[in-house]
Structure formats: C-alpha cells, structure tokens
Amino acid sequence: MVVDLGRYGIWRHASALTPELAVDVEKLGYGAIWIGGSPPGDLRLAEDLLEATDRIAVATGIINIWSVPAAEAAASYRRVGQEYPGRFLLGIGIGHPESSGEKYRRPYETTVAYLDELDANGVPVEGRVLAALGPRMLRLAAARTAGAHPYLTTPRHTREAREILGTGKLLAPEQKVVLSSDPDRARSIARPAVENPYLHLVNYRRNLLRLGFSEADLDAASDAVIDALVAHGEPATVAARINEHLGAGADHVCAQVLVEAGADPLPAYRELAKALGLG
Questions:
Q1: Domain named Luciferase-like: which ranges (predicted)?
Q2: I need a surface site. Which of 35, 92, 109, 134 has the fewest CB within 10 A?
C-alpha cells in the first residue's frame, strides 16, 4: 500500500520525538513525521507515534543497514504495517563510514543485498525508501524502492535527483530550518547542527563538493554553506525555500526545525505550518 506523506512533514531525532509532539504536529496539518537518528529496528517508537495519532504518516529517516539486520527490519515493518496500514514507510540507508568502522565495505553491494533480504522477507517496493545522495544510489532507489530520502541537500540537488529518479518515484528531501530574522543568530543556531558531524563525514562532503562548494567552504563551515543548507529568516522566507524543493521536483519535504538548546520546537513548527498554508 502506498503511503501518503502529504507535501510537508517534519524530521526530528528519535530521542526528541514523543507521542504528545506527534499529536500536536498532526493538528498543525503536517503529513508525516520522519524518525531521525538511526532508530532501533524494533520500531516501537513508530508504533507509539502512530497509536497516538489518527492520520499522520510515520517514516524512518533512517534505519541503518549496519546496525539493524534486514530480517529484523522486515519483521518490524510487517507488524507496524499490518496494525497501521498505509501510514508507515520504512526508510533505510547505508550511513557513513566514520560511524561503521572497518565493516563499512562495499556499501553499494551491501545495500543491494539488504534490499534482496527485504524482498525475501515481504517488504514491498512501495513500502520502503532509500537514503540516497549520489547518482548510483539514486538509481538504485529508483530501481528497487519507492524513491529517495536525501539528507542535508539543496534545491539544486533535488533537481538533479529528480532527473536521475525519473517520474513516478518519491523524492522526499530533508530541509533544516531556523525561524529567525537575525542572520547572525540563525547561523549561530544552524552552524553546530551542520558542522558537527556532517561537514566532516566523507559522504556528505563528497555530495557538497559535487554541488559546487569548495573544501575551504566545508572546512570553515562558511556562511555560504550554512545559508545553502539551512533555510532561515521569517516564516514566509523559510516556507518559500522549502517550496523551492517542490519546484525542483520533490514530492514531499520534511523540515528539521533547529532551535536553541532546550527550546521547544513546537512554536516554530506552528509558525511554519501557517506560512505553508497548513491546518
């Protein structure tokens, strides 16, 4: 069964997601919640979020191939999918070598083998998406899954990803946002979330270099990099930036709201929902 994500969703680390937040986000009109941070393979958090809500979809962004065996992911998918049909999407990905150590070998072939196991264990193509940045993984996403869930990208990448995926495949990028009209304040919130660890990880660096940034830009976490990767400004400005992804070929964009340490993200999600015309 195809999962309807709507045009806009939220991306939030598993450790910061609660059923109470899910209820509030659903009321605001968002179509999906993406569970970030390589959640456990038992998918109990997904069940908790789905149980607390009525219609919103839940997706993993992402289950890490190295830490969750395909058989476990498939069993959890079947359980959640049967209980909440049409509302759960399994996002999987290979992660990055820095977190996987010596076992990170032949990532493409490992991903193919993982997809083969998901096939054998009853996870349908339309029930799964692949974290994909480069052309080869994007082509694999198009061939073997419902589509792609790129992370830490730009509308330019979205346009190029759509060309590779072709029509009829889901393209659901993540977009970091800070609601602040003060550029210096916005960058002070955004920079730590981008620089550490992402600008030091080889797969993200490779993708950003491919998009035209320099090694010096990445090493310095320059304003140009931060401004390209994190939409900031008034709610209308941020909403316009999110909509650039849709104009570039995305079907759905999940917003990761960044706030100061300890701050409640819900007010920002509320302001953004209004600017996006949700509700």
A1: 19-117
A2: 109
Sorted by sequence, the CB contacts under 8 Å of residue 120 that are 6+ apart come out as none
- Supply the CATH number for residue 272's domain: 3.20.20.30
Instruction: Please tell me the total count of domains within the chain.
Output: 1
Q: Which of 138, 130, 121, 150 is nearest to 229 (CA)?
A: 150
| Contacts of 1 by beta carbon, 8 Å cutoff, 6+ apart | 81, 85, 86, 126, 127
Q: What is the mean pLDDT of residues 264-269?
A: 98
Query: Can you state the angle between helices 19-28 and 44-52, rounded to 10 degrees?
Result: 50
pLDDT digits (tens, 9 = 90+) for 69-102: 999 999 999 999 999 999 999 999 998 765 555 5
Contact 266, 274 (CB under 8 A): no
Q: What is the pTM of this model?
A: 0.97
pLDDT tens for each residue of 187-200:
999 999 999 999 99
Residues spanned by the domain of 269: 8-276
